[in-house]
Every structure is written in structure tokens, then in C-alpha cells.
Amino acid sequence: MHPALTEEAALRQEDPAAADLNPPVFDTEAVELADTLSVPTRLTGPEPDARMDDEVSLDLEQALEPILSEAAERQVSSAFDDLSFAVRNEQRRSFDEIAQEIMRPLLQDWLDNNLPTLVERLVREEIERVARGGRR
């Protein structure tokens, strides 16, 4: 037991006013036990070895290497340059003009495939109606 702690405890018992001003006394066994236990200041894991550092630097070097070949990069760059040129130099068109340009071939294809059979069916129905004697 620490003599300073016992003196402090004795003073507190004698003078109640001093007990309020002094900090509480701790159990000396707990203090001694805490002193004997060593708590690491930081958590330590296994030390990284040099191989791990080499692998990380190798992975980093591979990650920084270009994925595309120079020829592929030139082709991609050229394609984007062509697109940029076309966008900058083409006349601005309205939405109606763009829609007409897109829809015209689609409509023409549909009419080529469906209009003849549609007209034939409607003409046949009209001929049958007239032949039966019904008029509008």
C-alpha cells in the first residue's frame, strides 16, 4: 500500500471539508494491478514484408500502364475528332427536321410492305358491297 494514499485517506476522515477538495482514493491493489499490466499503445499486426511491398508496387505499375495500344488510341482519337468536327460544322436543325429524316425511311418501308395488301383488301370489300346491291 502506498503511504501517500493512506495519509490522504486519513486526512479525509479527520476533516470533512478537505474530503470535498481532494480527489477520491483508489484501491491500491487495483492501481498496482494496472501498473503491472502493459497495454500496447497501438495495435500491431504482422510486419509487412518486402515481398508485399514489391507486389503492391508491381500492381501499381501494371495499373498505370495503358490498356490500349498506340494504334488503337490513334483510331479512337481520330473517330472522336471526326465527331467533334461534324458537330461543330453541321448546320443546326430543328427537331421536326431530324424526326422527318429518321421517320421517312421507316414510313416508306412500312408503306412498301403493307399498303398494297391493305388497298387490295379494301377494294375487294367495296366490290363485294356494291355487288350485293348496297349503296352508301
TrEMBL record:
<feature type="region of interest" description="Disordered">
    <location>
        <begin position="1"/>
        <end position="22"/>
    </location>
</feature>
<dbReference type="InterPro" id="IPR019632">
    <property type="entry name" value="DUF2497"/>
</dbReference>
<protein>
    <recommendedName>
        <fullName>DUF2497 domain-containing protein</fullName>
    </recommendedName>
</protein>
<dbReference type="Pfam" id="PF10691">
    <property type="entry name" value="DUF2497"/>
</dbReference>
